[in-house]
Amino acid sequence: MKHYTEIAQLAADKGIISASDVEELGISRNYLYAMCREGLLERTARGLYVLADSDVSAHFGLAEISKRIPGAVISLISALNFHELTTQIPHEVWLSIPRDTWLPGVAAPSELNDSLCRSELLGFQRRTPDASIQAHSKP
What we know:
139 residues; alpha+beta; Arc Repressor Mutant, subunit A; globular; AbiEi_N
């Protein structure tokens, strides 16, 4: 039960956790599977988990994709929509990534946000200055 408490606290702090987050604490990923079977966690995508009773925001799909591609930056219409600077609703999640970045297979975000049906990836030569990138903590 000690590991259940640690994993639940991690999920409460981060919002979305991965198997590697749990393994960094020295806890086997098998506890994630057990917690899902018991209804304590919910698997949102391959390797991603949230607390079963967590409130999911309208921007959960952005957080989920950001977790799956850590170096990506939400950009263009997706970023404008997140900051409520446009009335346009994006049909894709627009991401900017360095050209040499390895990409995992990114399918549609979870069923919890099925309005975001695909991702558009934009390559760029150099990393943009970090001062122009805002980090947001919880979905």
